[in-house]
Amino acid sequence: MEKIKLILPLLIYLGVTLYIAYYNSPRRKKSKNFTNEYFIGNRSMGGFVLAMTVIATYTGASSFLGGPGVAYKLGLGWVLLASIQIPTAFLTLGILGKKLAIISRKIDGITINDFLRARYQNKWVVIMSSTAILLFFMAYMVVQVIGGARLFEVLTGLDYTVGLVIFGFAIIFYTVFGGFKTVAITDAIQGVIMLVTSIILFWVLKEAGGGMRNIMKTIYEIDPNLLTPSSGGAITKPFIMSFWVLVGVGLLGLPQTTIRCMGFRDSRSLHRAMVIGTFVVGFLMIMMHLIGVMGIAIIPKEQLGDKVIPILAIRNLSPVLLGVFIGGPLAAIMSTVDSLLIQTSSTIVKDIYINYIAVEIDEKKLSRISLWTTLIMGVMVFALAFHPPEFIVWLNLFALGGLEAVFMWPILLGLYWKKANSTGALLSMGISLLVYVSMTILKIKFFGMHQIVPTIAVGGLVFVIGSYSDKSSPEEHLEIFFE
């Protein structure tokens, strides 16, 4: 009976999600422009949906499981560090939003590669960016799926594989048939669920620990360093600098959040999204990481950080509340995977197949190919998740850094620097990728900093050198981007 109470809210949630996918299916609506409807939702997102889909896409397993797991090990210093992520939505929408939206309408672009192709007019830029998207998105999605299945396993007592199959079926189904619009709407719903469930767990734990004063007192007795900004020296200055780049300014290079800038309705929606998004991401980040710290006092000596949040939920929530809570982290994971999956499909279909293989193709065939591509990529991701690594946050950060290394300068300088050209973009993308992957594999660190810091610096430098070493784009072409 208790298992039914636990699983029922989750089944209701998944059922609603699948219905939204069916209702918004471009095939059911017989859309006249399938690619625009399926991959960018006909640019119809309002402020609230835009804010929540940016946040939900960015907030994944790491924010709900991995990050709080590290906070459990390092204390309040990690909460302070996680606060760097608060301006995520503001930076993305404020710096890239309006300009990218205007340009994407001019060029009729629906993917980030459409922008890069139009700006640099070089097929190798598109091929390289497509390769990077496929490579790092796959790693990023696998990490999220592992987090979801692990959560399912711990909270329901069902086998990891069972959780993987149920979880995988739901995501693949609603993404394949619903397209971008369903992904955006479900992201908004999932964002609200994340907020509600984090508040529930925080409040219950506060009561269980005898209030915040008592919880902090217990943590101080365990180890006073856990209440200091540096966690007794465990969080070094080079690490803070690295984190600031990796989950702060580097987010400007993430294709999965940048693409949202092409899909909103008007300027009013953008401005609303900047305010709502900043508040919500700040609230979620502080709340979830603080819950991780509270776990030190409530369940001390847990070895596997990723399991701290699930264990806290199991021991302190009633079956029904636990069932509702599962929706929070699962929503975070599902919203990230669905966004990456639809963008992976658009990269293969729109950026590679239509541009370089079948330039002339009718809408019916295109619709069929898009659905099958999304389905195959989804199945591949879940197949790769059958052998999970122990600590998912670090694999998550590797994929995140790889995307930032490749995309940050070509997008940012392509939007704001007239001199930027394809030579600079190619050099930056290629050398950044090489530096980042080789330094990560060989575990090379300059002054203790994460590999993304020197990678971003080198990428920016070679972009400028490459752009000055070759001629700029014709003035009439630049008018599209700088008038």
UniProtKB/TrEMBL annotation:
Its main location: membrane. Gene3D superfamilies: Sodium/glucose cotransporter. It comes from the Bacteria. CDD domains: SLC5sbd_PanF. Coiled coil: none annotated. It is found in: Membrane. Keywords: Membrane, Transmembrane, Transmembrane helix, Transport. The keyword tRNA processing does not apply. It is a multi-pass membrane protein. The chain crosses the membrane at residues 6-24, 45-65, 77-96, 124-146, 158-177, 184-205, 234-254, 275-300, 320-342, 369-386, 392-417, 424-442, 448-468. Pfam families: SSF. Belongs to the sodium:solute symporter (SSF) (TC 2.A.21) family. This is Sodium/panthothenate symporter. It comes from Psychrilyobacter piezotolerans. The lineage of its organism: Bacteria, Fusobacteriati, Fusobacteriota, Fusobacteriia, Fusobacteriales. The gene is panF.
